[in-house]
Every structure is written in structure tokens, then in C-alpha cells.
DNA sequence: AGGTCTTTGTTCGATCTTCGGCGGAAGTTG
DNA sequence: CAACTTCCGCCGAAGATCGAACAAAGACCT
């Protein structure tokens, strides 16, 4: 009796992860007989999940037929909804982006309007990629607020008026829809794209506000209420005067977020409103702005130092609008983290800017959808249907 | 084809978790045929892992034969090594304590001496429970310092001279030995014993120092270097003058740990050395001590407030020596956490004293061993051998 | 008390999976 | 171009699982 690794879903997982590209690989990895593997692969091919490509390199004998996910008959979408933008990426089953688009969109216009816009963009992208609507298997959506992941309903989001408890998945009828916090999907995108082998990773988004996506043991940690990673309202010392929109004072976000820096710059006579304005000032070489960004980095670093001791990640990725000036932000963060965290925890810790950049959220949202669809359970359901 | 849940290991897991106590239960839960289940159960009985007890209650038909883990032929031990004590619990396969003992033992005497002592105690406990040494299947050990869990080697532990990189499991020859940080095993013990249904839990140990065990998704989170949960050296605001043994200042442990409180009391003319002295003073009604404990609670609460925002646990358990005066400690902690954490995260959060108490560490260490032994993979290995 | 009903557990043949050897296919190497 | 290697499909054998039939053990009704 085999110890367990053998279902069609497991086989597909190995193919999709790139662990195996041939039938022989699969036999070696699963321990199943070659004939059994062939049978599984046949079933997957018949369902349109896997395809054979040209023969690969010979290693001295008959060259193996390469296997890969069938990219034609399946499409997925990742949707990145921000306070003022909407970015949609259409992806194939391997996670490659087929088409994408971005435009301005106020999330405050409410779920009906926003989701109608998303739906329209989905149609456009599908048309551009010349795929019928029917191949769209699942959609992942990242939204700027807390979500009850299991039901896809926003949970008292502060900047999404009208969205509270709105059943987002129902809007799209049959298609599988997964809704998550934007920082979570960014963390997922960054992890899968740039750090696939890392077990424990933190993705810190520094934009108008500050949030953090947590990858623990390769999976997103959402916490009990789905509010994990909300580090923007952690208190930092020495800033009791800084009031925060949450009602408390000295919140990290209220002293080191893009909006807070912009306000400080305005007070100094340098008009700035958003994180983008701050970035522009820094890039223009303004030393005041530079100093404030670096100081913000120190404050963020102070909080991260605590979290490093607590969570002991292998990698911390800094993303979000302000990471465009990451040299200065990172300098402050690194300085503080390496000073205030324990040596054991920092010894192998690396703190880097996002390698995935602006696309991380849409990508991560799409990957959320793809991984859901490719989960062994779901694949077994499809194959045995 | 069954979607997967069927191996002997899976069946045993259901029995050990209490999810199923009869063959019919197993058939219902796994979806396998009754005859298949009987076959699996027979194999488990033959290997001495499961036993039948008297018939249970009839529900209108033939009463089912009850199944449970076979308690006679298997024993496990949990060892709680502190700086100055050694506690050993001998447990059966269901996690019941068969015999236990505790005595003073300086961990600073080095691994050879300490482990010889443990080994001797194991023999005594086995004799007391009238079991031959051969039934001891696995041993879990909690030690007061960081450990590389995979190898069971202490990793530069500050208060365990001579233990660095010592291969603890090798000392016991054939028996399976799992070594982990003491706070981790306490968290495990508390979780399994008092909060089995909870997914995300923090166990905070307030003793001489301060540490935290993390249960995420029902499993221990150890972090990249196994140093996760080391919250004793998180910085707290407004105490820059308090130097810590780690070389930094304003560490939580340096201002709110038992040793720190004792020192402050001594400065106030109330001689105290250890956390136990502090507890004694509080219990004698000393208001200075009471005030300091409550203030320590506030400082711990400040750190926990950050961690609640970040990790979003369902339960925080307070344990360790100082939790003997938990009313005062908890008052300070709750006060600060509920003030400084986000409502979404605190809404369903409960902060409670340890229900498992002094035995949590030895219990948790034993459970670590038992769960390792009962893991489906290991059971399948045993049954198919 | 005795018959009927319900639920449990076992036995056993039928069916479905998986295994592994064989032979053909498709390359490489000398 | 012959020998070798690796890959892949085919097929009979071995093994696992199922489900029907039957026996066991108690509840329930008359």
C-alpha cells in the first residue's frame, strides 16, 4: 500500500510546481508505478488540465515527453482594488499574465459600481486574449480592508463605504471568487514570484497607510478574524501627540505612513498630499523629504524589530508606494531592526525591496485563484466527476 | 476512487482525536466501507495500537464496540527542564499522566549530568507505573533556550552553559527524542489541554524572563531559526534606562520580568530576588509589589497589543511563575491590550490565565512526543512494517 | 415471552486499482 | 548500424476495496 501520495490532484500539483515535467519524474517522486502515472496523466490530459509538448532532452535513451499545464482552456483573473485604482490581470493556469489593465476607480463608489467595472474589464481582457468567457475558472480579488475570507465579505472596512458585509462572490454568479485583503495578496504574489522556497516571510506595504501580509509555513496567515497583519496601528514610542484616524495616538501609520509624511512636509512649507508627492520630492533630491522618509523607516523598523523577535521570518519585503524610494526607507528600517532584534533572529534575515513591484497585488490575487483551483481536492473533484 | 482519507494512520488519528470511537463512526467519517474499516482496525489492534472496550450504548440496534488507543503497551515521557528544576511526566498514549516527579536540578550542570538525571527519573517512573523500559516510544523535552528543532540541538542558549549544539537526542540511543523550547511546549500543552478547538493562540510565560509560544493553525510556529516567540527583548517605550542582559535597553523582560520586579522591590527596601519572592510579597498583600506587578502587566500588555494587531489570535494565555498572581497581572494586560489593539482583533479575543498551570510544560513535551508517534506517516510505517 | 426492527460487525465473491514485466518506440553512443 | 538506454503503452497478476448477505446483539412492540 502506498503511504498516500498518488491522487490525480497530487500529480497535478507536482506538475504545476515544476517539480516534475515528465512521467518518469512523477513516478520517481510519487513512488507509483510508471503505468499508474500514465493513467493519471491520461485522465488529466482528457480533462484538459495537462498537455504534452515536444519531446525533451534525451539523457541517453528515448527522450521523455514533456508535460505542462494546459494553458489554453483555463484562465484566471487577479483583481487589485485600491482606494483609487483598479488593476486586473488575466492569467493562464501557469500564472503567466495574458493581459492586464489598470485605471482609476474609486472604491468608494460602492460594490455594485466597482464590480460592474471589474466585470467589464474582465470581458475586455478575455477578448484581447481571444478566450471565451467560459474558460475563466476563478477570480481572486484584493481589497483595501479586512475581509472574512471564508465568505468573501468585507468586514467593517474603514475606507470602503457601502462594502460592509457585501457578498462579493455572489456578484459573479458561477465563477469561483476569492476575496482577501490587498496586503495579503501582495504578500502571496511576492512570495510565489520572488521567494518560493522561503517558509516564513513578511510583506510590508508602506503607502498611505501601513500594513503587513504574513506568510507562515508557505501559507497566508490571516488570523482569527482575518485582521492579522494590521500593523499600521501598532504604537511607536515618543509620538504621543500624533493622533490617528483609528482614535488612538502614536500609531505607526500616523507617524510613518505616506499621508503622515506628506502632512509633515506640508507643515514645513513643502506642499504634499499623498505618498506619491512624497516620492516625487525625494526623487527631486529634497533633503527634508529624504530625512523624513528615513525617519519613517526607523519608526517602521522599530515595529518590525518587535515582529522579527516574535515571528522570526526569513525575509521581510518592503513594498507599497513609498518603496519607490526604498534606499532611504530601507536604510532606516535595517538600521533599527538589526540594532533592536535578537542576533539569532537577524542572522539569516534579509530585508529587501519588493521585486514584484506594482503588479504584486493583481498577481497575488490571481495566484490565490489559481492555487484554489489547482488544490488537490478540487482537482480530484474535477477528474472524478 | 476515494479522495484520500483512508490509511491506517488516518484511522488512528480519528480515534486518538476522539472524533470516532466506533467502527461505524470511522466508516461515516472516512467514507470507506465498513468492511474496509474493520480491516484497518484489525491491523491496528494486532499492532497493539488500539483496543476494544466494553460495548457502548445502543442507539436502537446492536451496540457498537468502543475503540480506544491501547494504553498498556505504549508510554511516552514529557520532560520540563528549567533553569533550576526538572519535571518529568510519564504518559500513556492517550496523554494521561501515569506518574510524574519533580526535583531541583541546575541546568548549568551541563547536558551529560542533566540527561543522566532525566534518564534515571525515567526509569523510576516506569518502575512506579510497572512498565518495562521497552514500552517507552518517544520522549519530548522542553529546555529554557532556543533549539534547532529538527536536530534537537540547543542553539546558543544564554542560560544553559555547555549545552550549545549538544545533540540531545543521541543521548537516549534508540528512543525518539524531540527537543523544543520550554515556552513552545507549554503553549502546546495549554492548547491541547484547555483550548483544543482554537486555531490561533499565544501562550505568554511570565517568569524570571518573558517568552511566548505561538500556536498558528493548530500547530507550533517556530520561525526560521526556531527563535520565534522571543518577546522578552521587545522594546517598551519610556524605559530607556533599564539595561538588559542582552545588551540592549528597555527590553520588556528588563522592566516587567520577575527578576526586574524583584530588583525594583529590593531598591524600595523590600528584599526580593526571584519571581517567587515577588509572588509571595503580592500574596502577603504588599501594595508596592502589587503596584509593580500591575505595572508590569501594563507593559506586557503594550507589547501584546502590538502582537494582537499583527497576529490576531483568538486566545492569549498567561502562564509562568508570576501568573500565580494573575488577577493583578491580567488586569494590567487586559487594560492595555483592549485600549491599544484594534476592535476587530479584540472583539473575540480572550485573555485568560493558564488552566494547565505548573504541569503545562511537561505535559506539552509529552504531547509533542505522542503526536510525533501518532502522526499518520509514522503509524503507516509501523503498520506496514 | 416472542417476534420484529435497527444497528453493528464479519465473511466472501465481484470489481476496481495498482503493479511490474514485456515489447515496441525513439533516441544516444561507439 | 548495432548495442545500449530511456520512455511509454499493454496486459495479466496481485492486491485493495466494495457491497451484499448473513450473523450478532440489543430495543421495542404486542
Topology order of chain A in helix (H) and strand (E) letters:
HHHEEEEEHEEEHEHEEEHHHHEHHEHH
Read across the widest sheet of chain A, the strand sequence of neighbours is 5-4-3-6-9
Fraction of helical residues of chain A: 40-55%
Tally of helical runs of chain A: 14
What is the terminal-to-terminal distance of chain A? 25 Å
CATH A-level architecture of the largest domain in chain A: 2-Layer Sandwich
Name the CATH class of the largest domain in chain A.
Answer: Alpha Beta
Beta-strand content of chain A: 15-25%
Gross morphology of chain A is globular
Estimated structural class of chain A: alpha/beta
**Sheet with the most strands, sense and barrel status of chain A:** 5 strands, mixed
Oligomer: homodimer
The whole-number mean of residue pLDDT values of chain A reads 93
Q: Note poorly predicted spans of chain A.
A: none
What's the number of structural domains of chain A?
Answer: 3
Radius of gyration of chain A: 23 Å
Give me the CATH superfamily of the largest domain in chain A. ATPase, nucleotide binding domain
Protein name (chains A, B): ROK family transcriptional regulator
Domain HTH marR-type (chains A, B): 8-56
Family (chains A, B): Belongs to the ROK (NagC/XylR) family.
GO molecular function (chains A, B): DNA-binding transcription factor activity
Amino acid at each position: 500500500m502506498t503511504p498516500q501520495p498518488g491522487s490525480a490532484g497530487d500529480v497535478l500539483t507536482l506538475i504545476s510546481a515544476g517539480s516534475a515535467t515528465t512521467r518518469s519524474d512523477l513516478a520517481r517522486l510519487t513512488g507509483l508505478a510508471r503505468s499508474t502515472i500514465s493513467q493519471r496523466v491520461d485522465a488529466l490530459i482528457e480533462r484538459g488540465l495537462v498537455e504534452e509538448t515536444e519531446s525533451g532532452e534525451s539523457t541517453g535513451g528515448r527522450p521523455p515527453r514533456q508535460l505542462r499545464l494546459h494553458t489554453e482552456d483555463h484562465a484566471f483573473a487577479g483583481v487589485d482594488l485600491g482606494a483609487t485604482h483598479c488593476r486586473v490581470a488575466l492569467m493562464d493556469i501557469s500564472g503567466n499574465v495574458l493581459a492586464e489593465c489598470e485605471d482609476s476607480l474609486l472604491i468608494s463608489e460602492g460594490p455594485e459600481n466597482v464590480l460592474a467595472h471589474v466585470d467589464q474589464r474582465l470581458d475586455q481582457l478575455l477578448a484581447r486574449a481571444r478566450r471565451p468567457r467560459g474558460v475563466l475558472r476563478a477570480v481572486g480579488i484584493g481589497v483595501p480592508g479586512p475581509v472574512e475570507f471564508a465568505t468573501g465579505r468585507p468586514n467593517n472596512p474603514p475606507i470602503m463605504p457601502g462594502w460592509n458585509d457585501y457578498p462579493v462572490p455572489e456578484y459573479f454568479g458561477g465563477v469561483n471568487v476569492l476575496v482577501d485583503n490587498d496586503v495579503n495578496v501582495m504578500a502571496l504574489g511576492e512570495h510565489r514570484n520572488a521567494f518560493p522556497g522561503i517558509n516564513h516571510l513578511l510583506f510590508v506595504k508602506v503607502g498611505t497607510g501601513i500594513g503587513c501580509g504574513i506568510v507562515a509555513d508557505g501559507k497566508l496567515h490571516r488570523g482569527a478574524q482575518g485582521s492579522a497583519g494590521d500593523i499600521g496601528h501598532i504604537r511607536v514610542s515618543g509620538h504621543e501627540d500624533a493622533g490617528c484616524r483609528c482614535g488612538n495616538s502614536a500609531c505607526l501609520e500616523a507617524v510613518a505612513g505616506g499621508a503622515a509624511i506628506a502632512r509633515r512636509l506640508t507643515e514645513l512649507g513643502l506642499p504634499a498630499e499623498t505618498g506619491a508627492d512624497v516620492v516625487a520630492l525625494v526623487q527631486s533630491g529634497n533633503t527634508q523629504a529624504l530625512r523624513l522618509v528615513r525617519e519613517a523607516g526607523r519608526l517602521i523598523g522599530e515595529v518590525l524589530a518587535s515582529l522579527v523577535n516574535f515571528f522570526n521570518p526569513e525575509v521581510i519585503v518592503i513594498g507599497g508606494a513609498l518603496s519607490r524610494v526604498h534606499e532611504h526607507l530601507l536604510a532606516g528600517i535595517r538600521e533599527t531592526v538589526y540594532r533592536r532584534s535578537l542576533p539569532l533572529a537577524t542572522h539569516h534575515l534579509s530585508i529587501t525591496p519588493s521585486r514584484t513591484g506594482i503588479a504584486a497585488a493583481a498577481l497575488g490575487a490571481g495566484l490565490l485563484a489559481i492555487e484554489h483551483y489547482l488544490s488537490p481536492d478540487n482537482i480530484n473533484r474535477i477528474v472524478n466527476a
